[in-house]
Write a structure and sequence with these properties.
The chain contains 6 helices and 18 strands. It is globular, with a radius of gyration of 21 Å.
Length: 354
């Protein structure tokens, strides 16, 4: 099958109304075999192959291999290309597959907004069994986030925040992707390799309160995470060439959150430096915010140059002294010295995010 043929078929299949429903995702994932009666033809998927009437020999894209070949615990879904498998570690492969499912699931629709976490509970329970089998340190689940992956798992990314919103009725803490209506992606660099990765914050504590006692995979009534690390004030300005996207802003300067001391101005940095903030929704748009660095990753390009990328949360203070997530930021520097100069004089502390 040519790439054009595959793209045309894939688009047609994914336009089927049933596949846009959120509740269907776990039914597709947890069923060992699935037979789809589409509007034009019948489709089949299992752990080894995907087939349809018009392409009985192959329905896989050029880079796709069977679930068994690459060690996935869940079968691939017809019409969807997985992230490329990069992990030799079974546990990390499992979490990568989880992030893939979050992206796919959040692209679907729910009749009742409160079902956001409930409609994934079956997959969560199945994944927990795999985590136990793999003897993971933690199988604790916190409203869409696995404790095992903290703090990096907080770096989810709304793909198009100018069109997104938060539900009117509380559904999840702001640090969970379940608090947003819209497609959520995990594009952070930590997903693909731990080489050159430096964690810049730590988790002191995290909790959620399940609505149904004894079931932490469903609805929650509240939650909080306490993080220790560097907290920086950032003043924002317009982002050049933003194409009118109101949820993306440029960081003008960084200041210490305790005494407002200037740490750096972006205009004094190298030409390869840039710093941006992306807000989760258009309602989360502020001129001054707090940045909490979560991780730093070094990328080397064939010995020619390197990039030091800092990723973290954007938070704002609420009335009771706690904070809430309103977005994420990325700061890129060319040298180690430039990166260190940003953070060396910044104060450390801990904040509670609700």
């Amino acid at each position: 099958m040519s790439p054009d043929e595959y793209g045309n078929w894939q688009e047609s299949f994914l336009d089927e109304p049933l596949l846009k429903r959120g509740w269907v995702v776990q039914e597709r994932i947890l069923s060992k075999r699935a037979l789809y009666f589409g509007s034009e033809q019948v489709f089949w998927e299992c752990y080894e192959i995907t087939r349809c009437e018009t392409h009985q020999k192959t329905l896989q894209s050029l880079n796709e291999r069977s679930t068994i070949e690459v060690g996935h615990v869940w079968k691939g879904l017809t019409g969807h290309d997985r992230y490329a498998s990069t992990w030799k570690n079974d546990t990390q492969q499992l979490f990568e597959d989880w992030y893939y499912l979050v992206e796919m699931y959040t692209s679907c629709e729910l009749t009742y907004s409160r079902d956001k976490l409930v409609a994934m509970s079956g997959i969560v329970k199945d994944m927990r069994q795999h985590l136990v089998r793999l003897k993971c340190e933690s199988t604790r689940y916190l409203a869409g986030i696995w404790q095992q992956e903290l703090p990096q798992a907080l770096l989810w990314d709304p793909e198009g925040g100018e069109h997104y919103r938060r539900p009117e009725i509380y559904r999840a803490p702001s640090w969970s992707w379940a608090s947003i209506d819209g497609v959520i992606g995990y594009r952070s660099s930590f997903l693909y390799s731990t080489d050159g990765l430096e964690i810049l914050s730590s988790v002191i504590g995290a909790w959620v309160t399940p609505v149904n006692r004894g079931d932490d995979t469903g609805e929650v009534s509240d939650g909080m995470i306490t993080l220790a690390g560097i907290l920086i004030i950032a003043n924002l300005g317009p982002l050049p060439e933003s194409n009118g996207c109101i949820t993306e802003r440029a960081i003008i300067d960084l200041r210490d959150y305790e005494d407002d001391t200037l740490l750096c101005e972006t205009k004094t940095m190298s030409k390869t430096y840039w710093a941006t903030v992306t807000f989760d929704t258009q309602d989360d748009n502020f001129d001054q915010i707090f940045c909490l660095p979560i991780m730093k990753k070094v990328f080397h390009c064939e010995g020619r140059f390197s990039r030091h990328i800092i990723e973290g949360l954007v938070v704002t203070r609420v009335d009771d002294g706690n904070y809430r997530r309103v977005g994420h930021f990325t700061i890129t520097t060319e040298t180690e010295d430039e990166y260190r100069s940003l953070l060396k004089n910044a104060s450390r502390g801990h904040i509670d995010i609700i």
